[in-house]
Amino acid sequence: MIAEPQDLEYGGREWSEQLRSAVREAIAAAVIEHQKAGNPVYFTDGAGCLCVMMPDGYERRLTDVEIEALTR
Predict the structure, then answer these.
(1) pLDDT (tens digit, 9 = 90+) per residue, 13-30?
(2) How far does Cα 55 stand from its chain's mean position?
(3) First to last CA, the chain
């Protein structure tokens, strides 16, 4: 059961967990909408490498040349 916001101690453990959960849900929804619009999504993998996820779900690491072109 999710507690009502007014019942949570600001900055408390439960408040922080609910905030983190809400942020994750908002990000996931934004990524889905971004992909539905036909846009790639950029992210870093576990090794810290810049990657791209295409609208069809295909994921890959970007090459150094691609990263340089994106950051110009």
Answers:
(1) 888 888 889 999 999 999
(2) 15
(3) 48
